[in-house]
Amino acid sequence: MSSADLTKKPADVAAMFDRVSRRYDMTNAMLSGGNAALWRVATVKAVNPRPGERILDLAAGTGTSSEALARSGARVVAADFSKGMLAVGRARLKDESRVEFVFADALALPFGDEEFDAVTISFGLRNVADPHRALAEMYRVAKPGARIVICEFSKPPIAPVRAAYFAYLDRVMPVVSRLASSNAPAYGYLGDSIKAWADQTTLAAWMREAGFRQVRYRNLTGGIVALHRGVKPAAGVWASE
């Protein structure tokens, strides 16, 4: 999958992540300047996992976010469509009984209706071929009253910050990825996909269209990342914004 290929064919995207799975977490830490851990903390806080809850962590990769969610006592399904990522995650968390790794396509989730108390996806919605369908699937598997949390790269609202960030994506990240990653071209795709992705208000609108209510977002790291939250209305209730 080349840096210019943003068609996001599921098999191609999965193969790309398979190839970077072994060094994925280390490379992410380097490319984010250590911010990846801070974004994960903010995401877990937004999900607000509780003991006994069942939480779906989509695009879970090697399970770093799933592990953090499970510390609350929640049971976490770590779902991903990269078998390489899942293999690394299963090996890394083989002693964590509260995390279950499941091969799953976000466009056709292998779960029943209204199974989860919370659904979250970090840096994965951008990679699916049809984000609207993925949001509809997330809505379907969420229980009435369930929380949805989406952590995703976004557009810094301040023009100089946005320009500096896009310059980093174009010039600095390719150099770092060649040094740190087992598949540097995959990170060329990463930069291109970030620049082509929806901004904060657009993603919020998509969430509302999917049926979620009380949709809000806040920027992290100057808007490089945005954390979107919403709620599936309780049965028979149309929650106000």
Shape: globular
CATH architecture annotation name = 3-Layer(aba) Sandwich
Termini separation:
40 Å
Multimerization state: single chain
| Number of extended strands | 7
CATH superfamily: Vaccinia Virus protein VP39
Helix content: 40-55%
Number of domains: 1
Widest beta sheet: strand line-up: 3-2-1-4-5-7-6
- Rg to the nearest angstrom? 17 Å
What portion of the residues fall into strands of 2 or more residues? 15-25%
Kindly describe this structure.
The protein is an alpha/beta fold and 241 residues long. It has a single domain (10-231), classed as 3-Layer(aba) Sandwich (Rossmann fold). Helix content is 44%, strand content 21%. It is built from nine helices and seven strands. The chain has helices at residues 10-20, 24-31, 35-47, 64-70, 83-92, 131-141, 159-180, 184-196, 200-210; strands at residues 54-58, 75-80, 99-103, 116-122, 142-153, 213-220, 225-231. Strands 3-2-1-4-5-7-6 form a seven-stranded mixed sheet, with helices on both faces. Helix 2 packs antiparallel against helix 7 (159-180), helix 3 (35-47) crosses helix 4 (64-70) and helix 7 packs antiparallel against helix 8 (184-196).
